[in-house]
Amino acid sequence: MSLIEPHQFMPFEAGETTNVSLPGLSRHTHVDILRINAGLVLAHSHFGSMIRHEDDIRRPADQLILAFNLSGRMRLIDPCGQAHYISNGQGWIIRSGGRKLQRIVEKGDGCSNLVIALTVSRLPPELVAVLDHALPENAPFRRLRLPVPGNTTLDTLRDGRTDPAAILRKEGQCMALVGHALEELTFAPDPGGPVHDHALLVERVIAFLGEHLAETIAMSDIERTAGLSHVTLNQIFRSLTGTTVFERLRALRLEVAEGLVRKTDRSFTDIASECGFSDASHLSNAFRKRYGMTASAWRRAQHQNS
User: Fold this and answer.
1) Residues 9 and 158 in one domain
2) How far apart are CA 215 and CA 277, in angstroms?
């Protein structure tokens, strides 16, 4: 079993990228690494399904890891011998403290993850204290229950751009994800427990809806995100917003679609698909109910008024 120390493969300068392939393995097993700044690294790992992968990983003691599963399944065994399965689109926060972790990807599974590595000492002391409490040495892993990045965020983080503006944008995206995770640790201090700050809970549910507009969202998905039953969640949501979760989802879809209709010349079929409408007719009917005219009439009216 080999020992891998990812920091040895890091690009030296901000904005630099590197592709790491392990000796003897196919091109389907590699890690694409982007250094965003001195204390922030973004990596996209790919483990092929043709063979079993097993190795030890040791990261710097002062490094915090956010891992978001994109496909497949990986088993990580922490220094206390507990196994954690990173799969099913889950997000995890990890602080190994410089100790070895065992990584196993079984043959037939394969795995792809997006990983953000942050130097903890760059955080304010009060947030370091949150990490010390939430991720002690005997429990260095924590599954995130608040929304993981949606397809739009993932695509832009993996778009391959390294120009200064793109690096600045990716830094903001990564730090926003770190912020989401730290907020969860702050307001849901018990692993697996609900978020007790209702305003934060509502913000995160709205963020989840916004990230998954194009997808079919079931109430069970939102219940898992919030850690609450749909009855309790809707009660909290309505008390703070005046609407139910799905009423807000429909409003969000129409808000985004309206902006695309007004500001772009994209086809209504494309806009409908991106915003979660079944087809252009469904989109147009939603416009008629909200604005008193079809999407095409709305676009003409907006162009005439501009």
Assistant:
1) yes
2) 9
Each residue of 134-168: b (16+ CB within 10 Å) or e?
bbeeeebbbebbbbbbbeebbeebeeeebeeebbe
CA separation for the pair 224, 231 (Å, rounded): 13
Number of domains in the chain: 2
Q: Bridge-partner residues for 99, per DSSP?
A: none
User: What percentage of the chain's residues is helix, strand, coil (to nearest 5)?
Assistant: 45, 25, 35
pTM across the whole model = 0.66
**CA separation for the pair 301, 306 (Å, rounded):** 9
Count of beta carbons in the 10 Å neighbourhood of residue 120: 17
Give per-residue pLDDT as tens, 197-248: 677 778 778 877 887 888 888 888 888 777 778 888 889 899 989 999 999 9
CATH number of the domain where residue 238 is located: 1.10.10.60
Rounded CA-CA distance 116/36 in Å is 10
pLDDT interval class at 42 (50, 70, 90): very high
Distance CA(93)–CA(96), nearest Å, equals 10
Residue 17 sits in the same domain as residue 118:
yes
Region of 225 (left: φ > 0; alpha: ψ -120 to 50; beta: rest) is alpha
Q: How far is CA 150 from CA 185, 214, 251, in A?
A: 20, 10, 18
